[in-house]
Design a protein that fits this description.
- The strands form four sheets. Strands 3-2-1-4-5-6-11 form a seven-stranded parallel beta sheet, with helices on both faces. Strands 7-10 form a two-stranded parallel sheet. Strands 8-13 form a two-stranded parallel ribbon.
- By secondary structure, it is α/β, with parallel strands linked by helices.
- It has helices at 17-28, 89-94, 96-117, 153-173, 197-207, 226-237, 255-266, 290-296, 304-320, and strands spanning 8-12, 32-37, 56-60, 79-82, 120-126, 176-182, 185-186, 211-214, 220-222, 224-225, 245-247, 252-254, 272-275.
- It contains nine helices and 13 strands.
- The mean pLDDT is 94.
- Helix 4 (153-173) links the parallel strand 5 (120-126) and strand 6.
- Helix content is 37%, strand content 17%.
Length: 321
């Protein structure tokens, strides 16, 4: 409670994968939540179960539009979570200008709302700011190895610029800000066709199709179940850390191994086939989460098998319904 009233939050990208889970967690914690989403990559179905609640509203609006957040219902707000942005390669390659605009104008609008209301503004950044890293595991003080004009640049540079803008706003105007760098989150509500490994492999395995592994599959990822990702975001919000803070899984595994695990857990007979690896695809991706563990008391709790089983079950229900 803030001054005898419920805490109030804005979640941009609130109908997205991570955004919808964050809305749910905040409501469970007693917040009133306004989700803002233009549904370019978000899905209204993700928050349909929340509609009708007196403590939740979905506002369909482009966060990049002038004054997009200036007249939201339910203010003043105590926290502004900026999660809006196409996050999968399929989306940001389809929406390159919108992705860059969300990192610039969208971030500025979120900051202006936070500054107006004296709210804490939390930017959802990404492990992509490290690019194809030459330091392993990736610590928050690593500057990254990013191709500014490569195929992934619209997303990488949108997030890097957003981090710079948030930092400048904090320094110049005293805005209470925090930056969370999210690593390879997965779970229910991912779109089957969004191009990311876990939902792609699950869809293919359930359909009995070959699992398409990029390159030779030796590139690594560190998966973090969405429930743990959201717990990290909330822990950062409740702290006074400005970040950036890495939130991600602590088990590094190859993409090929992820595919094999999904085949086994689904009981599929699907073979694995190898396809061309996308340009600038990171060879290794694993966070150093010492800062989150020490300062936030955060650590991932859902193991990969439990997380994948929950995710597969969700996809399977949608396939058979």
């Amino acid at each position: 409670m803030m001054g005898g009233r419920e805490r109030r939050a804005v979640v941009t990208g609130g109908a997205g994968f991570v955004g919808s889970h964050l809305c749910e967690r905040l409501l469970t914690d007693g917040w009133r939540v306004v989700a803002v989403d233009n549904l370019l990559s978000g899905v209204e179905e993700n928050v349909a179960h929340l509609s009708g609640r007196p403590d939740f509203v979905l506002v369909r609006r482009d966060v990049c539009a002038p004054d997009a957040l200036a007249d939201l219902p339910g203010g003043p707000f105590d926290a502004v979570f900026h999660l809006a942005c196409p996050a999968s390669p399929a989306d940001y390659l389809r929406l390159p200008l919108e992705t860059l605009e969300t990192g610039s104008s969208g971030t500025r609008n979120a900051l202006e709302l936070a500054a107006r209301d004296g709210a804490r503004m939390v930017l959802a950044s990404t492990s992509e700011v490290y690019g194809d890293p030459q330091v392993h595991p990736q610590r928050e003080d690593y500057w990254g190895h990013v191709n500014p004009v490569g195929p992934r640049s619209v997303y990488d540079e949108a997030k890097r610029y957003a981090e710079a803008l948030v930092t400048a706003h904090r320094q110049a105007r005293g805005t209470d800000t925090a930056i969370v760098r999210i690593f390879n989150s997965y779970g229910p509500r991912m779109r089957a066709g969004d191009g990311r490994a876990v939902p792609t492999f699950i869809r293919q395995a359930l359909a009995g199709e070959p699992l398409t592994v990029a390159g030779d599959g030796s590139q690594t990822r560190s998966l973090c179940y969405v429930e743990d990702t959201v717990a990290g975001i909330v822990a950062l919000t409740e702290s006074d850390l400005p970040g950036p803070v890495n939130i991600g899984g602590d088990e590094e595994t190859t993409v090929l191994e992820i595919a094999r695990r999904i085949v086994k857990l689904t009981g599929s007979s699907s073979p694995v086939v190898f396809v061309e690896r996308p340009g600038d695809d990171p060879a290794r991706r694993c966070p150093d989460t010492a800062l989150a563990r020490e300062k936030l008391g955060w650590a991932p709790r859902v193991g990969w098998q439990e997380g994948l089983e929950r995710t597969i079950e969700w996809f399977a229900r949608r396939t058979t319904s």
